[in-house]
Amino acid sequence: MTDALLTVDGLSLGFRGEGGFAHILSDANMTMRRGEIMGLVGESGCGKSTLAGAILGVLPRTSLQVRGGTINFDGIDMLSGANTRAQESVRGRRVTFIPQDPFTSLNPVFTIGQQITELMKWKSPRRAPGGVRLPALMTPYPRARRRADRDQVMEMLNLVQLPNPERLLKKYPHEVSGGQRQRLMIAMALLPEPDLIIADEPTTALDVTIQAQILGLLRSLATDRGVAVMLTTHDLGSAYEICDRITVMYAGQDVETAPVAEFFNRPTHPYTAKLLDSLPEGGGGMTGIPGELPSFYAPPPGCRFQTRCERMTEACKQRPPSDIAGPDHVVRCFHPLHATITDALATKEASL
Amino acid sequence: MFVVFFISNVVPTDPARIVAGENATEAQVVALRTEMGLDQPLYVQFGRYIADLATGDLGKSLYTQRAIADDLLHRLPATLELTIAAMIISIGVGVPLGVISAVKRNSWIDQLLRILSVSGLAVASFWLAMELQMYFSTKLGWTPLNGRIGGWGPDEITGFYVIDSLLGGDWASLWDTLHHMLLPAVTLALPAAATLVRFTRAGVLEVINSNYVLYERAMGFPTSLIIWKYVLRNALISTVTQIGLIFGALFAGAVVVEAVFDWPGLGTYAVQSILQSDTKAILGFSIVVGIVFIGVNLLVDIVHTFIDPRTIQ
Amino acid sequence: MSVLKRLLSDRAASLGAAIILGLVLVAILAPWIAPYPGDVTAFHLADRLQPPSAEHIFGTDRMGSDVFSRLLFGARITISIAVIAVGVSVAIGVPIGLLAGYYGGFPGGFLMRTSDIFLAVPQIVLAIAIAQTLGPSVENVILALSLTYWPFWARLVYAETNALKKQTFVEAALALGASDLRVMVLHILPNTASAIIVRTSIGMGATILTAAALGFLGLGAPAPTPEWGRTISEAREFLPEAWWYAAAPGLAIFLVVMGFNLLGDGLRDILDPKLRKGSR
């Protein structure tokens, strides 16, 4: 795709631990386009949060080992350890983050105002790139920009429907409810006017009653501003509500990508189909698929789903290539549930 | 202190006899005993002592014949000044090294700092004081051998020479005071700095894996800002509690270090009192130290609520 | 068994254990391995203040006695002071903590307030005050240290007992008709053991330092006892010329305290998983 904003290509990485090397991501692929909302869906442990962490550069450095692949954000290498300065200026400015747990993701000993001010000091859209680099603790915050930034903050707090912003800024995080904190995190993610927001299960820690509100807010604000959102979730229901496109991951591999309507109408990978079948009536969480996730330490070669798949054959010991199952619909399976281009070509060849 | 009071009266030594001297006649001893109230029953003595205590009277020193409370109060600033200097050194050295140790965990510098901090806690302070004194004062002549100041000292206002010389603009005295203070303060600071390295390291390690640090990193905040502002502030919450204990330990440790450097504070007074078996002076000394100790712990609680907004509620 | 194994796999802790083992051996064997066992009391003024040589590896002191030999005998004093003082502290502190924690209420509160009073004054100051009133001798140093340090164990056991007595296994034992004493000794005490062991190892180091400081201040055993703290204070007037005189006992104290601290740290990592997290 030419309008790709973020491309993850063949990413393989894992962690060294007491049980050996844990293969968390094995040849994971994903693309984000400008302005789209993409759901990265899978069970817990499928590697979706690790993928988000890899893009954000927050994986534990001491045990992390990258075995291959690239992460490219608008021409900038986001994976290499040799590119940290460029990455630091992209993160928080062009790529921002909404964390999973708003309760523990704000620093408990600084007021909300102090933390937003710090964010704007470094990541405000009005901050000119380059210039003299002073040690971080001595870098000044020019007054004129500070005032403009403050106006923008107030406007944004109103937009995310936080009442009484003046008072809110003087409070400490523990004095504010979870829903309000997550609105705050959304505001903080939008304030730098980024191209991409990575939202890692942003509503898991919240009450069911406010989950939909928060997601709706995120969608409307992002769409208005043309900001792309990568939403990791295990909740197919919320993915259906707000996403344009969905990528399904299983045990560290991407298995299927499709626009949201196509995805729910014509699930083509056996895992996706099982995933949709396991949905209880009326949406909500997943109830489960027979069998267990393969071991991280000794995963089967090829398609990771083979251990739970009825269609598994000898061919599945190889990783299936990308196959086209419909418009903008990519599946990685040798035995898809619906005809793909490969099938069509094969029939054509046979008929000749 | 009550414990000490009782023990001192159970032990078969007779203060009156000691004061009177070896050549005193029995009549002189008896007279002195009456004068000192030692012929009264134990509970009367104790009651009197407590009553006097309530009015701030710690009794009379057997030898200086001055009020113990006055002696102690006069010497308190010297000890406090030394303790505070050691405190500043130990925080200034211990906290940054603890942060570095945690950030670069398992590197050679972390290993080195761990060895140094374990060593710092194992050294006998009086011995270190002597060795430093021998090397830097006697051999190299870089620092004064002992005492608090060379000349008369600055005009006394607070009793803290650093403050007094600053107030009086007496730069020569200031320099001389700091010069005298260097070795004793460093000696005293070493074990405290070692403790702080360990606590800061543990505190930073606990915070560095928290979700809010992950958020700050994901949002691309400068690494040095994250460590020295956001992580450190949180890590210091547990360290501040420790700093209160450390101040107490420093204050107590000053007894021995003062003795080596002839620092005219509470410690040397206590040691002199020991040599002269002046039980009441020792008792008074323990009480004053106990009061300072309790005061510091109160202060720590206050500072703790100040830096941790979660405790205010 | 697995504790021992893990201890030996930790380099720092096994070094600590080795140092302590060495010290104990030296203390026991002092009369046989000391080159001049008679020098604890004997003096040879003609040989006074000799620098280290083949005959006197740590030199001689102001009386012409062999510093090394006196050092070995000093280990006996240090070991006995530390072991007995800590032993007595444990013997006083543990039952008090156990009773106060188990019964709580007024008697428990009273016992704990008492220990607070002891903790209100810094340990060295309290030890000085007590030792001074009692007069200088090894026994009195031990008594002073015991009276000073028992509240640490009382506090520790009190806190643990308080937490443990609400546990299901204690309630189960009581429901089965076990007596209070039986529950305390057979069910609660064993569960506080690891905390006590860790505290004891670290406490030994602190006790040795305090004991040496008392000796240095002249509150310990009288001359000519080869106690390390006293030796250092004797050596003071001969500095800096006779540097070996003070260096030897000072390094000996350092080594022993370091041994106990390393062992204590290692034991804590192994026995107290709650505290482990921070130490990595």
From TrEMBL, chain A:
Q: Which CDD domains match?
A: ABC_NikE_OppD_transporters
List GO molecular-function terms, semicolon-separated: ATP binding; ATP hydrolysis activity
- InterPro entries xrefs: AAA+_ATPase, ABC_Ni/Peptide_Import, ABC_transporter-like_ATP-bd, ABC_transporter-like_CS, Oligopep_ABC_C, P-loop_NTPase
- What keywords are assigned to this protein? ATP-binding, Cell membrane, Membrane, Nucleotide-binding, Transport
Q: Name one GO biological process term.
A: peptide transport
Q: Which SUPFAM superfamilies match?
A: P-loop containing nucleoside triphosphate hydrolases (SSF52540)
Xref: Pfam families: ABC_tran, oligo_HPY
Q: What is its main location?
A: membrane
- Give a yes or no for keyword rRNA-binding in this entry: no
Which ranges carry the ABC transporter domain? Answer: 8-276
Q: Which GO terms describe its cellular component?
A: plasma membrane
Q: What is this protein called?
A: Peptide ABC transporter ATP-binding protein
Automatic annotation (TrEMBL), chain C:
The keyword Protein transport is assigned to this record: yes
Q: Where in the cell is it found?
A: Cell membrane
- Domain ABC transmembrane type-1: start-end pairs: 75-264
CDD domains hit by this protein: TM_PBP2 (cd06261)
Give the InterPro entries listed for this entry.
BP-dependent_transpt_permease, MetI-like, MetI-like_sf, OppC_N
User: What coarse category fits the chief subcellular location reported for this protein?
Assistant: membrane
Q: Name one GO cellular component term.
A: plasma membrane
GO BP term, pick one: peptide transport
Checking PANTHER family in the record gives:
D,D-DIPEPTIDE TRANSPORT SYSTEM PERMEASE PROTEIN DDPC-RELATED, OLIGOPEPTIDE TRANSPORT SYSTEM PERMEASE PROTEIN APPC
Q: What is this protein called?
A: D-ala-D-ala transporter subunit
Natural source organism: Hoeflea olei
